[in-house]
Structure formats: structure tokens, C-alpha cells
Amino acid sequence: MGLNDHAGKHVRRHGERRAAHRAARHSGRRPGDGDTRGAILAAARDEFAAGGFDGATIRGIAARAGVDPALVHHYFGAKDKLFEEAISLPVAPEAFLPQLLATVEPARVGELVTRRFLTVWEDTANRPVFMAMLRSVVGNEQAASLVRDRLGRQVFGPIAGLLGVPDAALRANLIGAQFIGLALARYVGRVEPLASAEVETLVTALAPTIQRYLFGDLS
């Protein structure tokens, strides 16, 4: 076999690989990546975190994930369904509150809940979920309704059920309002000096308020 034959085979093989790659992209599949659904979900969290519900588009999410937009619809349907999955909480109160309330003296619960909230937010792996929520509730009622439902079922409801005190639902909502306001100012608005304050500084400042919401007199 001559040199030209070898060169011809190399060119043909290269062409076949390029064609296969184009076919894979056309079908919406990520070459060599079996977790397409997970990649779309991660891309959606980043898109919702960056632009909120209104700013994110199926086309933009697909581009970030490296897939065809039709594949996003195939796995998740409409944008609101994708958003609902994208804001699944990485840490839910029922995962840690029962043990905390059972093992810690009541006077320290506000401090520990505040520290847990900030610790979860400071983890950059969790940030896209929370940022997606915060950026979406401001300008879109559909997204705000989804976030309220998620927080009600997974955060405020469990907290209220575990407190065992009068006005538990109101107390849980007050805690949520305090933490959401903190997150908006620190992580979205980047208001200084709050944005660069040390976690323990914020725990010291906020814990007494959270403690009062938990167990204090609200009258």
C-alpha cells in the first residue's frame, strides 16, 4: 500500500469522525457523555441563577449544556417544569432540624440555625439553586409561586411542625423572611459591608433575632 493510500484512509477516517460528531450534535446528544439529563439540569441552574426565570431561555440552557433545544423539551417539557426541578433544595430542614432540636439546648438553636443557613449558602456548589430562586421571584409571578410552594413544603412547613410553639407557622415565615433578605443583600445585591462580612460576625449579629422568632414573645 502506497503513501497516498495511507493518506487517503487517514482523511476518510477523519471525515467519518467529523460526520459522526455532526450527527450527534444534530440529534442533541453529547458525544461521550451519558448523563445528558444531568448536564441540562446543571446548565439550567446556572442560567436561572444568572438571569432569573425570565432571563433564561431553553435555547440558552441547551447551548450551555451542549445539546439541541429539542432534547431539553424531551427531558423536562416546558420551562416551568425545568425550573421546578432546578430549584430542588440541596439541604432541607428536615434533614438536620430534628436532631438539632433534640440534642442542643434551646438557647443555642437560633445561633446554630443561622450558622447552618450561612454555611449552606457559602458552599459555591449550592449557590446556583438559591440564586435561581432569588433572581426569579422578583419579576415573574409564575416562578414566585413555584418558589413559595417549594419553600412552604420543604422549609417553612417542616420548621413550623418541629417547633412545637404557639404561632409556629408565623415564626417559620419570619425566619424565612430574615434569611431571604440577608441572602438578597449579601449574595445578589452584594451590599457592603454585609457582602464581605465574616460568617461568624453575621451569626453573632443575627442569632438573637432568629432565637426570638423561634421561641420568644411575638406579642
Write the SSE topology.
Elements: H1 3-27, H2 36-55, H3 58-65, H4 69-76, H5 79-86, H6 97-103, H7 109-122, H8 127-137, H9 141-163, H10 168-188, H11 199-215
Note down, in words, how this protein is organized.
The chain has 219 residues and is mainly α. It folds into two domains: 3-86, Arc Repressor Mutant, subunit A, CATH 1.10.10; 93-215, Tetracycline Repressor, domain 2, CATH 1.10.357.10. It is 74% helix and 0% strand. Helix 9 (141-163) crosses helix 10 (168-188) and helix 10 (168-188) runs antiparallel to helix 11 (199-215). The longest helix is centred in the N-terminal third of the chain and has 25 residues, at 3-27. The radius of gyration is 24 Å and the shape is elongated.
CATH top level assignment of the largest domain: Mainly Alpha
Number of strands: 0
Give me the CATH architecture of the largest domain, please: Orthogonal Bundle
User: How many helices does DSSP assign?
Assistant: 11
> Mean pLDDT across all residues, rounded?
82
Radius of gyration: 24 Å
- Structure classification: mainly alpha
Q: Specify the biggest β-sheet.
A: none
Task: Name the beta content range.
Answer: under 5%
- Helical residue percent band: over 70%
